[in-house]
Design a protein that fits this description.
367 residues; SH3 type barrels; 24% helix
């Protein structure tokens, strides 16, 4: 048994299933799939932060993550490995949204399923199979304990069972994986349900939460329901900016969003940009705003002097790339920091704006 599970909330805001936002109002029961692909990393399917994909350990090698407008399927979560080989439950949908992984009426009211895809490997690693099954079983126990799913482990199903009901295609999972591990056709799901029951009997399942907003699009003010706005409201409430979770970016939600943006030194215009989503992610993971220190402004005035007598170049940015123009030798310029704010030069040379190496100033005076 595992001591605790890790859940990474990485909602897929661009997936059509999320945008459809079909709320579940009836019963919810757990549904276990497996991916049927030899890739145990959850990052293959999940659009999330660098916490899930870390350079030097694992990065996505495919472009088939599910947070795309063309992917007409979605499940509530994927269970697989993070970058460093730890098992994680990557949540793609809010638990009160219907998924599109299991087709048919049984995915909707009155008996919807909380669906998880378990990231399969090459099927021959018994230790990984046990790790995956134990984590998913603990996750299902947590769903039951939280009241998200029905308190009846006998309701847990796989694709084969759902197909017999008429609610799914005839996938072999998760039997195809279990059979390689020596499970029996008539008892493997009973064994999995027993795993879930052991966690229920042991007591509350401990969860370590991480949050990613990498999959969320820009959200602007709207007066009609928007699932992206609803997720924004959930995030704001989580870090103490209280507002309704009605899916309307309006009134008090705008006030709270602007307050958050101001507190985090962002443009407080009420538009949840990628920058704002990133700040929300940092806040939900325990981060704090960076302390903004006012820059030290050094001002000089001096006469431009060069060795060749042809003036010096101005640059568009401090990386010294992209010439703008040349300041002629003999011109008197005023410099703030390393940036010329204005010039006092002969009229025929006009005014100059850009960056300059202050070593070209002679007879320099501090202003």
């Amino acid at each position: 048994m595992v001591d605790k599970i890790t859940i990474l909330e990485a909602i897929h805001g661009n997936n059509p299933c999320f945008k459809r936002a079909h709320l579940i109002v009836g019963k919810r029961t757990p549904f276990i799939h497996d991916t049927g692909a030899n890739e145990p990393h959850a990052g293959r399917y999940t659009d999330a932060s660098a916490w899930l994909e870390e350079k030097g350990y694992w990065t996505r090698r495919f472009t088939n993550h599910w947070n795309r407008p063309t992917v007409m399927k979605e499940v509530h979560a994927f269970g697989g490995l993070d970058a460093r080989g730890n098992f994680v439950i990557a949540q793609h949908l809010p638990f009160d949204y219907s998924a599109w992984g299991c087709a048919g009426k049984f995915n909707y009211d009155p008996m919807a399923h909380i669906q998880i895809e378990t990231c399969e490997d090459g099927k021959k690693d018994a230790a990984y199979y046990e790790l995956a099954m134990e984590n998913v079983a603990a996750f299902f126990a947590w769903l039951i304990q939280r009241g998200i799913c029905e308190n009846d482990v006998s309701s847990i199903v796989d694709h084969r069972t759902a197909h017999r009901w008429g609610g799914a295609n005839n996938h072999g999972d998760i039997w195809d994986w279990a059979s390689v591990q020596g499970e029996k056709s008539g008892t493997y799901m009973a064994g999995f349900r027993a795993r879930v029951q052991r966690y229920l009997d042991r007591g509350p399942v401990e969860v370590v939460w991480h949050y990613s907003t990498a999959g969320m699009p820009v959200c602007k003010m709207r007066t009609w329901y928007n699932p992206v706005a609803r997720q924004l409201q959930v995030c704001l409430n989580r870090i103490g900016y209280t507002c309704e979770t009605d899916g309307l970016l309006w009134h008090e939600t705008l006030v709270q969003l602007k307050k958050f943006q101001a507190n985090w030194n962002l443009t407080n215009d009420g538009v949840c940009t990628r920058e704002t989503w990133a700040a929300l992610e940092k806040a939900m993971n325990g981060g704090v705003p960076e302390i903004v220190v006012a820059p030290v402004v050094q001002r000089y005035a001096g006469t431009v002097k060069t060795s060749k007598g042809k003036g010096i170049s101005l640059w568009k940015n401090v990386s010294l790339s992209g010439r703008v123009c040349k300041v002629p030798e003999g011109a008197t310029v005023e410099v703030t920091g390393d940036c010329i704010k204005g010039t006092s030069a002969p009229a025929k040379f006009g005014a100059y704006n850009g960056y300059v190496d202050t070593s070209y100033l002679v007879n320099r005076v501090n202003l």
